[in-house]
Amino acid sequence: MLVLKIPLNFFAEPSIRVVSYVAPDSDNLQVWQNIANGRKLEDFELAHVTDESFFNGQSKDTVVIFRYEEEPIVYNAQYDADQITAWVLSEAYPLIDELGPKIWQRSVNSKSPLLAIFVKEVNEETFTLTKAVAKAFKGRVLTSYSASGQLAERWGASGKVLPTAIYVKWAGEEPKMVIYNEEGVAFDAETGVAFVNEALAGTYQGYKKSEPIPAANDDAVKVIVGKTFEEIVYDKEKDVFVEFYAPWCGHCKKLAPVWDELGEIFEEKAPHLVIAKIDATANSYPETLDVKGFPTLIFFPADNKQGVTYNEERDLDSLKDFIVTHSSRPITNKEDL
Hints:
Layout: E1 16-21, H1 27-37, E2 45-49, E3 62-67, E4 73-75, H2 81-91, E5 96-98, H3 101-110, E6 114-118, H4 124-135, E7 142-146, H5 149-154, E8 164-171, E9 174-179, H6 189-201, E10 221-224, H7 229-233, E11 239-245, H8 250-269, E12 273-279, E13 296-300, E14 308-310, H9 316-326
Parallel strand pairs: 1-2, 5-7, 6-7, 10-12, 11-12
Antiparallel strand pairs: 1-3, 3-4, 6-8, 8-9, 11-13, 13-14
Helix pairs in contact: 4-6
């Protein structure tokens, strides 16, 4: 929005306004108009004032950010389009924001890391905690808060221990989640800053969402949980064929008896082979695995733990043929399978 005189209701609502104070015949007016007509600052209400009687104490050739009920932030450096745009993008957004589509889109567009702090309820204590962490990473990490334990669970936390945090980084177009280890020290301002520092450095060992480790795991189809995934799947002495399933998935329910029979067939005839399953909604697994739907079937030979995705028919004969073809050791007596 470009105006020569700011309307009386311009500051009446809680929004972010950016105002330039310029002379009507200066080159800077054109610079500002070019900035305002671009798309980089479209999240903000933009205006300019050319009548000095309406400067209200502001200096000529300055840009001022007005946030509702906060002190104005003034730019009075070189009047350059790129510098002003970068300054506005750095200073105009609030230090913290509620987790939602707008801050997510900012993270997507800029590929800036996003920190989501999940709390029991939004209150002054929430803001104090979130701001304390955010201040340490201003300009480097977008910081948000949310009272949605459900969302925290969907992103990889348990959803039961709050406050907690999830750090979102970008690998190309894909978000990668680093989950605060809620089984360790409680999340507070100090541990939150340490968490983000390690996440930025790529050294944080995140929380692994996991069901309890089965007391007995003697069935033909072995149960994998988050805490046992690496131990079972990455065993270099074993081929492991894993079904990633969801309890509510109809296709998974249809596959279940076939998968059980597959496990029984190979249990004695191929001791080096493990047929396994993991509830992918209740347990974490390496983010490098391409699990986008259910069921996803991935074969992990002893000599190739990157895995081979199964994309054929889900009938017993097709599954048996796939195992024989990809087994790291010859399977004898194939006619008995």
